[in-house]
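Subject: for your reference before the review

Hello V.,

The reviewers asked for a structural picture of the protein, and I figured it would be easier to keep everything in one thread rather than splitting it across files. Below is the amino acid sequence we used in the manuscript, unchanged from the supplementary table.
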Amino acid sequence: MYFELVADIDLSESDWKDGWTPIGDGAEPFEGTFDGKDHSIRGLIVNAPENVRAGLFGRLDSATIQNLNLVDVQVTGYGWT
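And here is what came back from the structure prediction:
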């Protein structure tokens, strides 16, 4: 599978209630290619000090992440973060 980011994403003013759900997890890892096309994801905050696999991606399996900029990102997790 191939995924391509077509624009910048600004999450700095997002108001989600349940926090960020990582792309891919222990049961279903992300497989394939995620090409950021030199775009940026800005303002992602993950505050999950009790959770493993916290972050933009939770678990990768034979995956490629390329050409992606992360700006003003803060990730707190426990193990495989």
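For the response letter, the relevant points are probably these. The radius of gyration is 13 Å. The chain has a mean pLDDT of 91.

Happy to draft the paragraph if you're swamped.

O.
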